[in-house]
Amino acid sequence: MTSADADDLVVIENLDFAHGYGAHQVYKGLEMRIPRGKITAVMGPSGIGKTTLLRLIGGQLKPQSGSIKFAGHDIPQLSRSALYEQRKRMSMLFQSGALFTDMTVFDNIAFPIREHSDLPDEIIETIVLMKLEAVGLRGARDLMPGELSGGMARRAALARAIALDPELIMYDEPFAGQDPISMGVIVKLIKSLNNSLGLTSVVVTHDVAEVLTIADKVFIIADKKVVAEGTPEELKASDDDLVQQFLSGDADGPVPFHYKAESFAKDILGEEADADSDAEQRKERDNA
Amino acid sequence: MLDRVAALGKAVLDNIAGAGQAMVMLLRALVGKPQIRKSWPLLMQQMYSVGVLSLVIIIVSGLFIGMVIGLQGYTILVDFGAEQSLGPMVALSLLRELGPVVTALLFAGRAGSALTAEIGLMKATEQLSSLEMMAVDPLRRVISPRFWAGFYSMPILAIIFSAVGIYGGYLVGVRWLGVDEGAFWSVMQSNVEWGQDILNGIIKSLVFAFVVTWIALHKGFHCTPTSVGISRATTSTVVTASLAVLGLDFVLTALMFG
What we know:
Chain A is α/β, with parallel strands linked by helices. Chain A is built from twelve helices and ten strands. In chain A, helix 4 (105-116) crosses helix 5. Chain B is mostly helical. Chain A: This is ATP-binding cassette domain-containing protein.
């Protein structure tokens, strides 16, 4: 292991990934190093496969080629049981929160602890209350997930994600669909949890303004690979068109506004051959 | 023409792949070190939602079907002066055929569809993914207890169905139409055999339980996680499971009584 590897918790090298049987190529030659103990933001237009990236790191998807090293373990090569061992060291905050709807908030957070330890109930209760206190939901312990607002559900899910004190926590669009206050709360929580628990955080998002305030490192993904990386300051100072388009939110630029399609004229006027023959007929009529 | 051949080929391949997925799912859910302490409460919880909550529909249907057989049987048998045979007729139709088959069909509609929808929604709301990311195998945690709950509860439901049905036949035949009570029960007792009739009925029921629960879980676990996908999977569970039960019933009947 080189010293660079020791500083990076997740190292992705030369990763190729396609959905289905190669029908939809998502990544080609992706390279990424996620520094230990820092907040790393992964940004990019929607549909670029940012969530897929988290699933690849978590071993839920297998790449066609390339390596994804988590703390030195090559995730795609691990056996099922070894993968489950590594997953105990990481956790993921899903976009929807993914709380278990048939359990109270308390039981949701106690769930991973009960599954992976034989701790007595009193200790589990103490741990759960500490985690709930950290996200400000100690008073909501007896509510069912259906009774929580979107922001509260995400905070409860965050408490569950940190229940086992993971080394890596992956946030999938943590700010999506949040009102400004809960967005601010989540930004603050990500920052404070990262610092106080010594976590490594990966935040996948396209909420540029929010994430740039807390990120230590930023990757911008487009066109199946990383197109820019650096600290928020470096990216703001970048003269790359694509980076600037992304940071300032312009509708059109290197990332086109239009999904790839045939020319508009051809689409609404029919085949060009038809258009030509129409033009000839018109010309003949005019001559006549 | 070529497109049609290609579409046919794709449909066949998809079906084979689906069957393979279902097989792998079941094997991974069932094979492995049993964890009694953790799985027992889960099994009980599922037995309640799959079995106990199906009791009402099973009991009511059993009662009415028994009553109908009693009435129909009586009107036919009385023409031949053979109304004493009403007892074995009701009992044998229920124990050999209607008990296992109708229970399986009702179970597919009541519990099978619920299982598919529940698991499909767990998939759509990323609960299955989040289990995986918490290093908890969803196959062992979600699929396995539901499978065993369905497998154990359906034969019990079928026995309850047959028992209630026989009582329904008794109500109509003896209490309403005046068949001799002693004849009804004693002729039934002498004509129904433990191995040939009751045990074969239970075996049928176990086979149906296995197939219906398996189909329901597979359709839920491998559905497209959208509202349309879940609705299709739920419909498909009821249709596929019902057809499978009726087809298998013929095969089993031919093997057992043919």
